[in-house]
Every structure is written in structure tokens, then in C-alpha cells.
Specification:
This protein has 276 residues and is α+β, with helices and mostly antiparallel strands. The chain contains 11 helices and 7 strands. Helices cover 56% and strands 17% of the residues. The termini are far apart.
Length: 276
């Protein structure tokens, strides 16, 4: 049946484009053209429309075939999903209310002193699992007329030389990243080199890492590197902000629960009935 629906989808969509007719059925379930058309983006080509229609009809049919088979083979107890649906409903409503409450009440302002306080109190959470580096990276076609000058200026620290490097890289390089003023994970840098971080670390000679392929040259100048120990606070700041916000969210939800219980008790909506 599914194969037939897929084969006929293009003809169905084109032949009944303006009629609200049944285009597919599984048992007593019907799929109408008006439902199908809502999933076809405006301006789609005939070929795209047919493909989207085919996929939607197949997905719709699979869903209903599964339900039909389940209704046939599952026991009466297994078919009763009322309790699960009610639990899901309550969970979904609670989640939506919590999100609205958080959005309305969460303080998202985080100061530098709060970040420092968190960092100092949770140093054990910030031990490095990989090296971190401050680098300037470039990927340039081998033989480019600016290749030598760009590679020479990767280590530049004078404003004019950095400006010249940026201009050259913009016009000649396949990729250029100046990460000399912030820490980056060795694994992230390794992605730019198309290798793993351990291999990359083994390629560093002095302060330079350079990997050549058949068509291009990838190189980086290492301004600073920390291989182990506690990561510097600036590297952890983003994670710390997320942790502080998560802690604030948890506190808000705990307070919300208590406030709702207190209000319910005061309004006599919640009482505990004891039997002596």
C-alpha cells in the first residue's frame, strides 16, 4: 500500500490540486488534499512538490498503519493509555508554566565579581582535560603570492603589522582566525587543521605548528599555551555564567513550588486529611 501511495503521489498532487478530496486512506483514516497542501511550501517546483507530497503521505500512512496494527495485536490493558496521557499532560503544563515563570523572573545579570566568586569556590571543576592555546591561525593555498608574507606576520604584535596581516589574509587566505587574545581548546583548533588534538600538539615546533597538504598550508603561531592544571578564569567564564543561571533557575523553581503550596493551603485548595 505504501509503495502504491508513493508511486501515485505526484499524480495525486497535480490532478487534484484544487479539490478537497481524499488522497490517501488507512482503514477509516483519511488524508485530505487540503491537509497535504499545507506542507507544500509556496513556490515549490512540480518536482519538489511531488517529492514532499510523497514523503508526507508515506509518513502519514506509516503512523496510521502502526496504530492500526497496535489496536489489533495489543491487549485491552496495553491499549489503555489514559493514565500516561494524563501524566504527559501534567508534565507538559508544568514545564510550560515553569518556563514562563523563569522568563518573567530570572535575573540574568552576572557581574565579574560573581564569576570570580564562583570560580574560586569550584576550582576542582575547572581542571583542564586538554591543552588550551592562544593562537593566530591561517589556511592558505600553497603557492599563493602572499603565502610567505602571511606566514611571517602570524606572530606580529605591532598594530600596523597586525593590520597588514589582517588585510592580506582577507584577500588571500582560505581561512584566518585571530585567537591571540583568548583561549581556545586544542580540540577546536585541531578541527581547523583537520586532525585530532594529540596529533596537533605533536606538530608544534617551538611556537609554530604547520601542516601542509597537497593544495594548501595550514599554520598557527602559538602566543600562549597551558597544558594542564586549573584553567584560567577567562576560559571558564562562559561555563560559569551558565552554572550561575542554572542555579538561579533551580532556586526560582523551588521557591515557586513553596509559594504555590502556601497559597493553596491559605485558599483551602490543599488540605491533608488525617485519619485518627
Amino acid at each position: 500500500m505504501l509503495a502504491f501511495l508513493a508511486a501515485q503521489a505526484c499524480d495525486i498532487f497535480n490532478s487534484f490540486k484544487h479539490d478537497d478530496v481524499v488522497v490517501a486512506k488507512v482503514g477509516r483514516n483519511r488524508l485530505y488534499l487540503s491537509d497535504l497542501e499545507r506542507y507544500i511550501p509556496d513556490g515549490s517546483s512540480p518536482g519538489d512538490s511531488a517529492r514532499i507530497a510523497r514523503n508526507f503521505i508515506d509518513s502519514w500512512a506509516v503512523e496510521h498503519v502502526f496504530v492500526k496494527s497496535a489496536e489489533k495485536y495489543l491487549s485491552k490493558e496495553e491499549l489503555n493509555v489514559d493514565s500516561e496521557l494524563e501524566e504527559y499532560r501534567k508534565s507538559l503544563l508544568r514545564y510550560r508554566y515553569e518556563q514562563r515563570y523563569i522568563n518573567a523572573n530570572l535575573d540574568t545579570a552576572i557581574t565579574a565579581s560573581q564569576i570570580r566568586e564562583w570560580y574560586d569556590a569550584h576550582q576542582e571543576n575547572f581542571n583542564l582535560v586538554r591543552p588550551i592555546l592562544k593562537v593566530r591561525f591561517v589556511d592558505i593555498m600553497k603557492g599563493s603570492p602572499n603565502e610567505g608574507e602571511i606566514l611571517d606576520k602570524l606572530s606580529a604584535d605591532e598594530p600596523q603589522l597586525i593590520h597588514d596581516l589582517d588585510s592580506l589574509a582577507y584577500s588571500s587566505a582560505l581561512s584566518f582566525k585571530d585567537l591571540s587574545d583568548r583561549w581556545t581548546d586544542a580540540a577546536e583548533l585541531a578541527k581547523d587543521f583537520g586532525t585530532d588534538w594529540r596529533t596537533l600538539m605533536g606538530q608544534i615546533k617551538g611556537k609554530v605548528v604547520k601542516i601542509e597538504s597537497e593544495g594548501d598550508v595550514k599554520a598557527a603561531y602559538v602566543f600562549d599555551m597551558q597544558k594542564d592544571g586549573v584553567a584560567p578564569i577567562e576560559f571558564c567564564a562562559g561555563t560559569i555564567r551558565d552554572n550561575i543561571l542554572s542555579e538561579r533557575k533551580r532556586a526560582l523553581l523551588v521557591n515557586l513550588e513553596q509559594d504555590l503550596l502556601t497559597s493553596a493551603r491559605e485558599n483551602k485548595d490543599f488540605t491533608i486529611i488525617s485519619k485518627e
